Predict the 3D structure of the following.
Amino acid sequence: MLEFLSATVYGSVTVSDLIVFALIVAVSFIIANLAGVYIKKSLSDRVRKDELAKIVRITQAVIILAGIFLSLPSFHVEFSELLLIGGTAGIIIGFASQRLVTNIGSGIFLLVERPVRIGDTVKIGETAGTIEDIRILSTTLKTFEGIYIRIPNETVFNSAITNYVANEARRFEYRIAIRYADDAGKAIGIISRLLAAHPFVLYNPPPSVYVDELADSGVIIMVRIWAPSREWWSVRTEMLWAIKQALEQEGFQIPFPQRVVWMQGGVPEGKKA
Amino acid sequence: MFGRFTYPCRHTGKEFSISIGREGESYRYLRECGKARVEKIIASADPVMFIHPVEPVNLPKEVTRFLEIVFDPLVIEPESGMKVYLTFPLEIGVFVAKEDEYQLLDVFSRCLPKYSLYGSPENGVITRFHRSRVSDTPPNPDPACEGVLELTIRNKSRGWVEVSRAVFECYFMPIYFDRMVAMTGEMVLFSKMIAETRILEQPPRPGMTPAIPAIRARKLLLVDVEKKSFLMEHGVA
């Protein structure tokens, strides 16, 4: 049994060397995982989610690399040889896996340029959602329907990226229609007061409320609002309903599409309403 | 109104009411302010409660760490300074504590919060907005709603500067209280566009009690959390 351990596998490397190598690497993986869990437990409520992920990943990478470095003597590897082998292997692997290398390169550029961060609401190409993770090979998104999507970093890098929360504030708008018989000035006053009372409708840049169009069925009031980027959706949904209710309370009605039809020669007797 | 309380306790004012009463093995916290009512159960043997004014950036939810105070324009001559009194919005924090461990239990306010943008959407910052009157003596605002900021403005530039806004970093903003809530700040004007502001760790008058910063109860380990000054790069008027 013990003789089996001293059997040579390759060059001067024996089975026991392989076992030692595997053990040290396995232990380093276990320690890295434990360290990751410990860091998450300790810092999860103190550090931003994306920063935490970065700290965990760097710590784990350092521990695993240290494990591999410690286990190398079991292979009787000299560093000059290692450099030579590594260089040659690098060229071979590079040619064999160009897409992989492109993805890694793109991942590094994404981390440096930082067009998106974990937690950002973005649209990459035709895919919209929230960034869940940015890894060295791929970026993962959770769509608004809760679906997991993995996009290779090369695709992310070459796609048009829309980051909805990169700027501190963003604008959105409503087009509110009222009847021609209603007082547009009064409606503008009601809407303006509502906007002034909402905390996240920004004071500056100020909201603008004005008559935008005299349309077929009613007078169109344009409402333009600036809100903090991370809150704009909740403000948008909340204010739309609040405006509708406030206008209705004051007797305003949302006009239905209507058309006046003129009959040549008048309306026949018996058809009049 | 502000201070340290032991359980069970009750504070009933015209603005808000807070009570903590025993319920079996635990305590029940109840707070009412206007139409809002908050109830929480506290599992603790003998903790103490603090009601302190806190940085006004928590309501209705935290979206910024900056406070912007807009006031009537002041025109300041070159290389001179002046001291003015402004008001700032208040939020009331309820902390439970066990030895040195603080937990922010509740934050509420009677003021209507309003937010704004200082600078451009690309480079600016979201701020908690407050409009204040300028006075040369300490005003006497409602201590449940507003505090007093003693602000020293120094114009270090070689030209006249008109100033009508000041933006402050709120994390670890040293707020002090006795019968009134107050803090001391300074604003150094370098030009019409650039100024540096900071809230100083000194009470406007001796004997005031320092308030517990809400950020301390959250124990955030942000890298720049200790930075207490703010560089206003988007103008002061």
